[in-house]
Amino acid sequence: DSGVTQTPKHLITATGQRVTLRCSPRSGDLSVYWYQQSLDQGLQFLIQYYNGEERAKGNILERFSAQQFPDLHSELNLSSLELGDSALYFCASSVAGTAYEQYFGPGTRLTVT
Amino acid sequence: GENVEQHPSTLSVQEGDSAVIKCTYSDSASNYFPWYKQELGKRPQLIIDIRSNVGEKKDQRIAVTLNKTAKHFSLHITETQPEDSAVYFCAATGGTSYGKLTFGQGTILTVHP
Q1: Quick count: other Cβ atoms within 10 Å of Cβ B77?
Q2: Residue B22 has pLDDT above 80, yes or no
Q3: pLDDT at A14
Q4: What is the per-residue pLDDT for B87?
Q5: How confident is the model at residue A74 (pLDDT cuts 50, 70, 90)?
Q6: A9 interaction partners in chain B (CB closer than 8 Å)
Q7: Do residue B100 and residue A90 have CB atoms under 8 angstroms apart?
């Protein structure tokens, strides 16, 4: 157990819908990172927040957004969902904002039908 | 941005043999190189990492070597065991990719008893 928690574990929804994924970092960690893992794209970095502020951005779609709250938990919002958004979504956390020593949560498996 | 290439994509060994997985990176300013192990349906788990000021790091049966000049790093697993079977990912960050971990495509390691 890494200490990073994610909810829900599984999510099944229809195309065009909007979902919210939640992540709580390890105690003491200030950075949260979001990743998408699909079979054909591997592990893709989406976005990083550090102490409430956006720090780095990857190839995150405009339909996706995230935020980090004062208690440091983070939410990833996915809207206008498409079949191709079906994937495992992981969050990770680290102490600093440098991307070193990231510990991953158990992931949320999103299925879009 | 950073690009990480990982080889081989699959690796099959007999229990007790050694396994080596290699990665190359493109950004000479990258300075942190972690390795993750991911079992089926589980989260990526950080198993070892190395920073650019170190050439080699060892942790029991696992070692990582870094050649900054050639921009490549390798994972070495000795005395492999069936429980080492998993997907292994290398990654890189730093320099122009500050805050982002760029992952290799993964290596499926199978250790036959």
Answers
A1: 25
A2: yes
A3: 97
A4: 96
A5: very high
A6: none
A7: no
Structure tokens at B77: 């697993």
Is the distance from CB of A103 to CB of A3 less than 8 angstroms? Answer: yes
Among candidates B45, B46, B100 on the partner chain, residue whose Cβ is nearest the Cβ of A101: B46
CA distance A63 to chain B (A): 20
pLDDT, tens digit, 9 for 90 and up, residues A31-72: 999 999 997 778 999 999 999 999 999 989 999 999 999 999
In this prediction, residue B81 carries a pLDDT of 97
Q: Flag if A42 and B42 touch (Cβ within 8 Å).
A: no
Q: How far is CA A108 from CA A10, A49, A58, A77, B27, in A?
A: 5, 19, 19, 13, 31
Q: Tell me whether residues A45 and B101 touch, CB distance under 8 A.
A: yes
Contacts of A46 (CB under 8 A, 6+ apart): A33, A34, A35, A36, A57, A58, A59, A60, A64, A66, A76
In B, minimum Cα distance to A5 occurs at B43
Q: Which two tokens mark A50? A: 């550090």
**pLDDT score recorded for residue A112:** 97
Cβ of A56 under 8 Å from any chain B Cβ? yes
